[in-house]
Amino acid sequence: MKRPRLLLLVIATLCLAALPASAGEQTDGPARYVNPWIGTGGHGHVFLGANVPFGFVQLGPTQTHSGWDWCSGYHYSGRMLRGFSHLHLSGTGIGDLGDVTFLPVADEEQDSTAFSHDDETVRPGYYAIRLQKPEVKVELTATARAGFHRYTYAPGAKRLMKIDLRHGIGWDALSSSSLRQVDGRTIEGCRLSTGWAKNQQVYFTAVFSSAVKLLSCNDNIYTIQVEDDGKPLLVKLGLSAVGTANAKENLEHEIPEWNFGAVAREATRLWNQELGKISIKTRNEALRRTFYTALYHTMVAPSVFCDVNGDYRGADGKTHQGNFTNYTTFSLWDTYRAAMPLMTLIHPGMMNDVGETFLHIYHEQGKLPVWHLVGNETDCMIGNPGIIVLADLVLKGFVSDKEAAFQAMKASALKDERGLGALKQYGYVPFDKDEERETVAKTLEYAIADAGIAKVARLLGHEEDYKYFLDRSQSYKKLFDPRDGFMKGRDSEGRFRTPFNPFHAVHRQDDYTEGNAWQYTWLVPHNVHGLVGLFKNEKAFTQKLDSLFLAQGTLGEDASPDISGLIGQYAHGNEPSHHIIYMYNYVGQPWKAARLLRQTLATMYHDDADGLSGNEDVGQMSAWYILSALGLYQVDPADGVFVFGSPLVDEAELQVGGGKTFRIVSHNNNERNMYIQQVRLNGKPYPKSYIGYKDIFHGGTLEFTMGSKPSKFGTSVKNRP
Amino acid sequence: MKRPRLLLLVIATLCLAALPASAGEQTDGPARYVNPWIGTGGHGHVFLGANVPFGFVQLGPTQTHSGWDWCSGYHYSGRMLRGFSHLHLSGTGIGDLGDVTFLPVADEEQDSTAFSHDDETVRPGYYAIRLQKPEVKVELTATARAGFHRYTYAPGAKRLMKIDLRHGIGWDALSSSSLRQVDGRTIEGCRLSTGWAKNQQVYFTAVFSSAVKLLSCNDNIYTIQVEDDGKPLLVKLGLSAVGTANAKENLEHEIPEWNFGAVAREATRLWNQELGKISIKTRNEALRRTFYTALYHTMVAPSVFCDVNGDYRGADGKTHQGNFTNYTTFSLWDTYRAAMPLMTLIHPGMMNDVGETFLHIYHEQGKLPVWHLVGNETDCMIGNPGIIVLADLVLKGFVSDKEAAFQAMKASALKDERGLGALKQYGYVPFDKDEERETVAKTLEYAIADAGIAKVARLLGHEEDYKYFLDRSQSYKKLFDPRDGFMKGRDSEGRFRTPFNPFHAVHRQDDYTEGNAWQYTWLVPHNVHGLVGLFKNEKAFTQKLDSLFLAQGTLGEDASPDISGLIGQYAHGNEPSHHIIYMYNYVGQPWKAARLLRQTLATMYHDDADGLSGNEDVGQMSAWYILSALGLYQVDPADGVFVFGSPLVDEAELQVGGGKTFRIVSHNNNERNMYIQQVRLNGKPYPKSYIGYKDIFHGGTLEFTMGSKPSKFGTSVKNRP
């Protein structure tokens, strides 16, 4: 009986072929260079679907699969969808969200649908797929707080819609759901869940273009019968973390009409606007796609987390009324390193609100955010990255109430939780008190945060606090074992961890965090010269740094999967390594950095589904690419000094706010000419191998002249960062 | 603003008063003597609502309260209902069920309703209540597998119905629910939950007399809009543990029409039929109500647990097809003592199916039931009471495949779980191996079961098994400490527990089960003479027994709440004491029993909501009352010997099956004349203080002549049991 089925399939395909073409046409702007598939394979874990820059809503397909590679709900290898969900994470190592999932079904038993990538069309702000059962073309677009669906059914196709409020992604577990029919075309409901975010509340109001009838609810999966009026079915769905009335207001404000094409075009326009913050020149088309896709990935989060009326759900679980734009999804352990510094360059208009969000979180939960997800403190990863980000914002001139910011930083740093109590007592986090794991990583991360507070204290004239936190920012020195030149765990009596193996790593159970001693020994971005000083001499430091990229050893079976993208023991696939290559500038050997940067840019990023060497980490992996491709990197995450690397693009123009632009030109640049020969800033020779944030922020032109051989540029002591 | 509200209330009351009177009229049969409120207060924990004898469905009110006194979902002290649920337990010490709850509401926010007992009308098979918000009279009746609701709304009252699939009672926790609209007047769904019963599956099909529309689902609570056609709303709901199609078939088979009054009358007729199995004569109306209510309470469970087509859900969680009536809710640790023996007297027609159920459970779970709840083995309480019940059935001539029954008993007794492994190794359950708790209770309970197996082995000619289990049935002797005459915990080296306090009890943590050494020392119902032999002499035993009813001591703060109904240390409120008074017959002092029995009957049972001295325990507490009021009690739960007590009723006629009757007449009986002077069986003098099951089962007349003073009756050694 196979032939009749094949025949039916052919007819089905013909029917679908007869459906109208996709609404939003291809764009002219930089959005056309985005390849949304990059990072959907391998272990990139990126979101695929329709959203607007920094939008609350990420409307896209969610697959039936589970496991580490489905943290965003979608992986290139998957072949079954459970529907189209309104919230997704992008690039995390833990799965959550995946809320409010629509699936057009042919009968009530159907709970998923097979699909092929051939039937998918994706670009920033727009996702489309042709399904066979029922025969329907699904198109999705979004605004910041609402999703817009268009279902173009083949004639006679059954119009049943399942709304799955039961399933989430990864750690997500339903607490309760609700759905009610408000009128003939409107439903509203909520989905409360616990997971990575302990208390996630999603409220929604959905309006259909045809009459609907609630048929059934099966374990929090609702089936709706949609009237067949012969037209494509449109569904507009507003979301809110506060309540259904707010969801309705968000929807009415953001999608007042029924013009799907217009909303899709507006989403693309918003992407072009934000992606246009950096325009580049390059002859390499793959590079262009990799670059703009990376830039696109840096703008999925932080996500707007307040309603159009200013209401938002605070870290205390309560509803607050704000006169600022509240944000969420702060993967700060990752993003303090490059993603947030990049934002200060091209999204300065957002940064006051980011700072305001941090201060409100501080008031709501008693400390600055660590890893914030849909308004919840997850305390994920370690350290106090929120302090670092806020310090950087203050030092760069953002945040109106700098004193309040300082007090929030100080209070957060003086708590007794997560090893801070032991740090205060012993001057480092010993591995035999309170905290017994990741004590090296914690000591080093806290030192970076303390350096940030110290700088802000100095700026505001808090002399005593400056001294206290400056002293604490040096605590990394206590973990350095001069006998072999590694950062090591130390007990409360001061004894270094034995036995010791610099290669060995046990995920979240040893003295490091997703890394080993080889990788963590360099984690002093706030005081590179201090680190150099721990070695016998600069040469010893440099030799050790050289050996990092050559060292071969076994991580062991229990090592973190995050330790990826290895060059020797340098692990580009995870964040603690991200600043290391640029350390060569601090010892006058920028050419060594140039070679390694070009190697990393060329081998760790590709115009391909498997194009990322590790988790995207909510924009950090891509932000490293953007900055490095521009030839810049902020090694100290809280001081505004961007160190030169080796620019990959021939020319770049950054919209740095207030109508000003900062141009970067790389003369004589090509694959071989990777070494900076000389630099000019605003036409004048510029001998330093770094540039301050203010010089970029005020606009201007930075010109690199490249060559195929290392030069003297940046070698003299006075020109090093 | 209080006056307008009061005025509204008056109007509301007038409107309700205008509603039609209750459908099922008062009955002529014994059902009219049932006071369903008995045991709804205090700690009786009985079910209140509409059901038929041994029906799967118990349709009645469920209150919003939680806690130990709401194991049935309803307690006399409660004032708020969350609705009318279809399944309830009666008299347990753990809460579960409470599935599929209907609540007429005035708006979608309403989730409960205040009520007054003044507005309730209850009799066997029928429950009615008048509610104020919305103004509606709710009437409920039931068949074995279906519930029938009638809602008579005041004119203009809003017709919204909430169907709560979220909440259960006590330990019940929802796993998932489902509800779908099948057509304009039909819904179907399921509720899967875990709790005391690990895997409870409830499927239902409900048909409404008016058009309905599914409006919303809020966290597994569904709101239905019912069309107002000006008539009372009828809802018929079929249940099944197998599936919705079976639920539909059950409904169509049991309630094919829409005649609520006829179904309610049929429910009452069934109760009259079953309650009529015992007709009594007494001038004491309170006694009559107490008696028939007790009889009513012995017929809530076991409950039918199969569909009209024979399908049932087995102990393996799978669907089976049976050619017998499968039962569930076997509170065997309680009911093996009196409730099941009573059933063998008045429900002989059910007992083959009970035996068949046991054998199927054995095949499905590898052992006979311990405490079976909606098809789940809960392993609640201790021992192997299922063996005792099955042995009694076999010995009384039930169960066609006696060899299969024997093999099931033997296999269940030879398992290694729950202390049986240690019992096999040490000859008792020591408190320092495998099992460390309740080891005295376990040893004693297993000995009772082993005595049952030994008798069946002897009956079937299994000589070796007979010897083995007879030997094991004597294991109680190993725990008797002759130094002070108490049963005590013993370690594997044979050392008795020290320090020792015969009064002290720690709930489920010490050597006993809901009891202390005073209460457990007598738990040898299968070998009373063996127990007597452990004492220095019969006098020593009798003195000890006398002192039980006088001993005063402190149980301690952590004692079980089940140790209630105390006379000295005799605890009538819990089962291990139930046979003790009758032990006087074994030492020729039945007059002592008579006095204590009359005291217990008079003080532990009342025609009052607080009329039970402890948990009803699924019929056991009431069955003790029935048998004792008849003057009979089966001390050894597996031998069919009923020991005489002190009959309370003047005359009783038992329908013992096959059209035969067994009459018990108490001449000259009154409150003072509590002592048996002489006995005649079928007109002939009968000197023995006990009677065999066969003498009852074959029908006949037993005449007691009572007097106000102890007599010589039953004193001589040859006439004792």
Automatic annotation (TrEMBL), chains A, B:
Matching Gene3D superfamilies: 2.70.98.10, alpha-1,2-mannosidase, alpha-1,2-mannosidases domains, GH92 mannosidase domain
Any single Gene Ontology cellular-component annotation: cytosol
GO molecular function: carbohydrate binding; mannosyl-oligosaccharide 1,2-alpha-mannosidase activity; peptide-N4-(N-acetyl-beta-glucosaminyl)asparagine amidase activity
Gene Ontology annotations of biological process type: carbohydrate metabolic process; glycoprotein catabolic process
Cofactor requirement: Ca(2+)
Keywords: Calcium, Glycosidase, Hydrolase, Signal
Documented EC number(s): 3.2.1.113
Classification via Pfam families: Glyco_hydro_92, Glyco_hydro_92N
Annotated signal peptide: 1-23
Domain Glycosyl hydrolase family: 246-708
Enzyme category, top tier: hydrolase
Domain (Glycosyl hydrolase family 92 N-terminal) ranges: 33-215
Assembly description: Monomer.
Protein name per Swiss-Prot or TrEMBL: Alpha-1,2-mannosidase
Organism of this sequence: Prevotella dentalis (strain ATCC 49559 / DSM 3688 / JCM 13448 / NCTC 12043 / ES 2772)
